[in-house]
Amino acid sequence: MTERTPAQQTAQQITSTLLLPYLNHAVRMYETSYASRDDIDAAMRFGCGYPKGPLTVLDELGLDAVRDQLAARYAESGDDLHRPAELLETLVADGRTGAAAGRGFYTYADGEVVADEESASADDRPELRHEIARVGVVGTGTMAAGIVQVFARAGYDVVFVGRSDQKVEGVVAGITKALDKAIERGKLDEDGKSAVIERLIASTEREALGDVDIVVEAIAEDLEVKLELFRDLDRICKPGAILATTTSSLPITQLADATSRPESVIGMHFFNPAPVMKLVEVVTTELTAAEVDETTKALCASVGKVAVSCGDRAGFIVNCLLFPYLNDAVKLAETGVDLTEIDEAVKAEAGFPMGPFQLLDVVGNDVSLAIQQELYAEFKEPGFAPAATLEQVVAEGRLGRKTRKGFHDYS
């Protein structure tokens, strides 16, 4: 084995510092049955572009090795985020230490993952329990326009509602431009473009949503604004229509409570840009009907998306695992480690597409701070308290790429 250089050893240490709590958090998410093994891994692969999900990474590193590193970190820091998850201790005690042992979170034969009692089968494939022929979308921003494009390209008639003719015309113009680019790349022809455009039904009146089979709202992340919309959708939409929200942070249960049909309310958290990102987090409340959940997951599959299931709590899967790691990166930089060194270390050692500070600047540091504050409020975990430097850059207006200054500067 080639001996690692001092620089490589430093990069490995930086990456370990940030990834160990992230891996531990994923184990805790799984052990509480918040999400399945496969959905946790799929969420981080398709939602963040990571090469492997956290539970797969744990199996490859060895659960015993990770447990020992966490225990050492916990003895040093006293931070509960470093205390090895109980399930990690249990699996190690049972000899399920990962791929090398043939069993960890997954089951292995000759080093390859094989089906076990937790593996999904063809019989588990979701089916449309409600007929979905016409889709409604409320909103005209980037996310809403992307969702309109996704459904229209998949063959659905899409009624989309905006506040003005200018707003809805902007959606059509943006989709037309995207389709033209697809033609240039040889992924679409003029007939295909015309078919997509013909499926677009623009309106400035919510009443146009009266005959849709599902409506997806993608408006401002403001609870009062969304509550008003859901009350109105409840009045307008036909019986049996599914009411979905793309919220990434607000309580879906409260939106459901604003209607007379809480069993028909569900979360469909698309990732931006919606036409490109494969993941949709399908979020159920305690009152969401099973057939609504199954139909929504089947609908995701029909438009080429990967659906993962979780319950209604702050962060869902992706944000709940991602943002504490990003927050930890800021705290590590506060100890004097260079930002660029952290970014490059994580990309080189973990294979992540972006370093944490590059990603914070892309997401927007104000958005990142708001999400971290929500996680801290929900879980009451001291280690989730937003890093002081994150609060500082937001206070200074250094919000990232959109302001050309964040943790890094942009010309």
From TrEMBL:
<protein>
    <submittedName>
        <fullName>3-hydroxyacyl-CoA dehydrogenase</fullName>
    </submittedName>
</protein>
<dbReference type="GO" id="GO:0006635">
    <property type="term" value="P:fatty acid beta-oxidation"/>
</dbReference>
<dbReference type="InterPro" id="IPR036291">
    <property type="entry name" value="NAD(P)-bd_dom_sf"/>
</dbReference>
<feature type="domain" description="3-hydroxyacyl-CoA dehydrogenase NAD binding">
    <location>
        <begin position="135"/>
        <end position="312"/>
    </location>
</feature>
<feature type="domain" description="3-hydroxyacyl-CoA dehydrogenase C-terminal">
    <location>
        <begin position="14"/>
        <end position="108"/>
    </location>
</feature>
<dbReference type="InterPro" id="IPR008927">
    <property type="entry name" value="6-PGluconate_DH-like_C_sf"/>
</dbReference>
<dbReference type="GO" id="GO:0070403">
    <property type="term" value="F:NAD+ binding"/>
</dbReference>
<dbReference type="Pfam" id="PF02737">
    <property type="entry name" value="3HCDH_N"/>
</dbReference>
<feature type="domain" description="3-hydroxyacyl-CoA dehydrogenase C-terminal">
    <location>
        <begin position="315"/>
        <end position="410"/>
    </location>
</feature>
<dbReference type="InterPro" id="IPR006176">
    <property type="entry name" value="3-OHacyl-CoA_DH_NAD-bd"/>
</dbReference>
<comment type="similarity">
    <text>Belongs to the 3-hydroxyacyl-CoA dehydrogenase family.</text>
</comment>
<dbReference type="InterPro" id="IPR006108">
    <property type="entry name" value="3HC_DH_C"/>
</dbReference>
<dbReference type="Pfam" id="PF00725">
    <property type="entry name" value="3HCDH"/>
</dbReference>
<keyword id="KW-0560">Oxidoreductase</keyword>
<comment type="pathway">
    <text>Lipid metabolism; butanoate metabolism.</text>
</comment>
<dbReference type="InterPro" id="IPR013328">
    <property type="entry name" value="6PGD_dom2"/>
</dbReference>
<dbReference type="GO" id="GO:0008691">
    <property type="term" value="F:3-hydroxybutyryl-CoA dehydrogenase activity"/>
</dbReference>
